[in-house]
Specification:
Length: 183
């Protein structure tokens, strides 16, 4: 395995994130030696959800307004319903996604998080998956929508739900390794 200690992944999340979709990929990245930063709309603890039940909280490292995308290798977008729905109404969150996409940096989104990619207008012609209720939105925005556990197309990695997290994590780590080997 390639040394990933020089990689730095940004996670965007706010209240209502699906707990496993933030904590499990975050831990997989940390276990691989990746630096991870969580940015949010506030620096108070944000509330995770386990489906429709409150889960654990986590304290963000910085505000969205303080993010410089040049400092990061990749972007991770956990799902949940309220989390991406709130973030897609935040101008800076969308700008961050657009900046990562413009720089062809890795963007990984799971479950409802592709709503953010739609809002950033970066899905046209991209093969993607998501939670079933988001697939029509993806198709209407021009994505090539499939029902697969993990989909990688260019700099984008998408997955459907928490059951897909092992494949999602593996795809992210593989993409980060490939990026370092190509550098």
């Amino acid at each position: 395995m390639t040394d990933l200690s020089d990689t730095h992944v940004l996670i965007l999340a706010t209240d209502g994130f699906e707990q496993d979709e933030l904590f499990k990929p975050r831990q997989a990245l940390l276990d691989a030696g990746v630096k991870v930063t969580l940015a949010s709309i506030k620096t108070d603890p944000i509330q995770g959800m386990q489906h429709d039940v409150k889960g654990d909280t986590i304290v963000p490292d910085l505000l969205l307004d303080d993010v410089d995308t040049e400092d990061y290798t990749a972007l991770l977008l956990p799902g949940g319903v309220a989390n991406p729905d709130t973030l897609r109404m935040n101008d800076r969150a969308i700008e961050i996604i657009e900046e990562f996409a413009d720089d062809d940096k890795l963007i990984a989104a799971i479950c409802h998080a592709p709503w953010l990619l739609i809002e950033a207008d970066v899905v046209d012609g991209v093969r993607m998956t998501s939670w079933p209720s988001v697939r029509t939105d993806l198709a209407n925005a021009g994505a090539d929508v499939v029902d697969e556990g993990e989909v990688r197309d260019g700099p984008f990695i998408t997955s459907r739900n928490p059951d897909d997290i092992p494949a999602f994590n593996a795809a992210i780590l593989e993409a980060l390794q490939e990026e370092l080997e190509e550098a």
